[in-house]
Amino acid sequence: MPSFPNNNSPHCTMSHHSKGSSSRKRPARQDIQEQRRALPIASAEKKLVEEVLKNDTLVVIGETGSGKTTQLPQFLHAGGFCERGRIGITQPRRVAAVTVAARVAEEMEVDLGQEVGYSIRFEDTTSAATVIKYLTDGMLLREALLDPLLHNYSVIIVDEAHERTIHTDVLLGLLKAVQKRRKAVKQEPVTETRQFDSSKRTAISKHSENCNQARISHLKLVVMSATLDAEGFSQYFDNARTVYIQGRQYLVDILYTYQPEPDYLDAVLITIFQVHLEEKAGNVLVFLTGQEEIEAVERLLLERSVHLPVGSLKLTVAPIYAALPCNQQMQVFKTTPRGSRKVILATNIAETSVTIPGVCYVIDPGLVKARIFNPRAGVESLSVMPVSKAQALQRSGRAGRERPGKCFRLYTEDTFYKLEDASIPEIKRCNLASVVLQLKALGIDDILCFDFMDKPSSTAIRKSLEHLYILGALTDEGKLSDPLGFQMSRFPVEPLYAKAVIISCEYKCSAEMLGLVAMLSVESIFYQPRGKLEEAKAAKQRFLCADGDHITLVNVLCAYVSEVEKTGNGHVPGKGNSRWCKENFINGRSLRRALDIYRQIERYLPGMGLSTVSCVEEWMLFCRCLTAAFFLNTARRQPDGSYRAMSSGQTVFVHPSSVLFGKKPDCLIYNELVCTTRHYIRNVTRIDSAWLPELASQYFVTKLAA
Ligand code: CDP
Ligand code: MG
């Protein structure tokens, strides 16, 4: 039970960053243009346009919610910057790209996909008319493969730079180089793209040459950040000029628990109801770690809210996370009707990337899900870990954007002071294989000398080169191999999955492998509500394959596709398919997204001379293909019943959610390592160990001999 000191208690910690006047009130129904004019950034329009004109690179710092992401592109558009190319705004998160583009289209009164559009992995709404383009940082890196000097753009805004995602860091290095080269191209209008020439690229180079002639110009760069550590960015860009946007922040009371919470989800629920019953109107923003958790809390909230006392405010729930369909993402921005309170359940996308109006209360368990990579062992895992102080401050700040608010931290004050000051840039804690492959594909061969803002350790770089070499993407000289490495760099999925899809064509099971990769790209396909555990388990039996989780996942997708075909509902959410999902305890949202991803990846095949073929339930072929693709993730049973991961030597356990949990086959292939109390392997399939030296000879002959 969380116990918070009340406001008058001496334990209450008040934040002291109240700026601006608290007398500012927003009329309930404000015209959208009025809302724009009321944003803190509005008065800086002229100055910002001038600064971008004067400086090739500009660093813009401004508090979250001040209007940077939605307004600056519009200012530059009005200032004539779209005459020689597009304005690109990169976002670390898909949700931000989608929701902000929709908002800006609304503000400019155009249809989304016309002047304003977005492009994220597996979804592109832009057209030839698009001049303001929101895209994920990863997508801009992919565009650079086709257009190395990014000639389509006159301005690139790297937004949310403080998040320091791995793609943002690579992008900063790349943009710095592109900027220099575009300047050079101007004096000497010979295409530089030839440098990347290979027989396969002729068409692309020609395309770029045309662009060169059409619009050679300097590339303007704006780096935007919500935190004050601008110096690093400015220094990296040769002491670039920095502009600060004055924000507005009301007082936020910060309340801690007296004791650590043993069950934070339970504490979340109790705190939500406590706020709902005791506090004035105003929306509640809750930070959770992922889709699964959000969905569980959503269900429990709806279940329990029927017991609210008569006459209390109505409680509505709005989830927001990356995999949520676009139309549902926009729901959180809808105005809350009078007499009701909205509870927004968000991942840390609501920390700085998206600002949701009307939030006065923040509930923060202080956790975040992040990827961590151990370069020595070569293992990457997904872990829930404590946030940094900077993140905790950002989160609490979300409560004080429109009026004074409260933040409930579900941990003790002592714990807060023990948090790290800031999180480590992702590039220093992630598997680099994917970005190294992309840099290689961009013609940057010497990764160790690449101008990173924060250099990853040379061990990490070497490990990723080794990983790509073992997968066959690099030659002995460290160049991209032809065709495998080249093809792998084109697929919009992790190198390991890209390779799986490519080789599955040889194994005559590409339909199943595409399905698997799509299913592995989404979270939580099966759900098991409390109280219906047995029913849910029985439902899963219908799809179960005794060989393991991979085939089971493929079975689910196949069953769904035949259901869609049978009911003739097409790929539409709702209707009969949802009933089917419900009956089978399948997460319909995740499944629909998986099917979308399947179709998206499939489109890449014909261009590479590959095609979709099904093994028609000859599962041996598929399992052999799994072995040939994922041999780096093999685990062998030990005499004590545990498993040992062959590449790292680590002791691992089959995850309880696996169909192989409790069965003890001799040798396994797995896809994911999850670290909680133990190292669990998830998505597991039984294989014949005798296949290893045959299907992954270059790796296992040496490994087994050692
Ligand atoms: O980028 P920054 O954090 O400085 O602010 P922004 O994302 O440009 O947000 C400016 C304003 O637009 C905020 O008041 C948001 O609540 C609002 N907004 C919205 O109402 N709907 C969206 N889909 C996106 C932003
Ligand atoms: Mg922003």
From TrEMBL:
InterPro entries noted in UniProt: DEAD-box_helicase_OB_fold (IPR011709), DNA/RNA_helicase_DEAH_CS (IPR002464), HA2_WH (IPR048333), Helicase-assoc_dom (IPR007502), Helicase_ATP-bd (IPR014001), Helicase_C-like (IPR001650), P-loop_NTPase (IPR027417)
Basic and acidic residues bias (residue ranges): 28-37
Domain of life assignment: Eukaryota
SUPFAM superfamilies membership: P-loop containing nucleoside triphosphate hydrolases (SSF52540)
CDD domains: SF2_C_RHA
Protein name as it appears in the record: RNA helicase
Species for this entry: Adiantum capillus-veneris (Maidenhair fern)
Basic residues: compositionally biased ranges: 14-27
Source species taxonomy: Eukaryota, Viridiplantae, Streptophyta, Embryophyta, Tracheophyta
Class in the EC hierarchy, top level: hydrolase
Pfam family, one: HA2_C
Positions of the Helicase C-terminal domain: 264-443
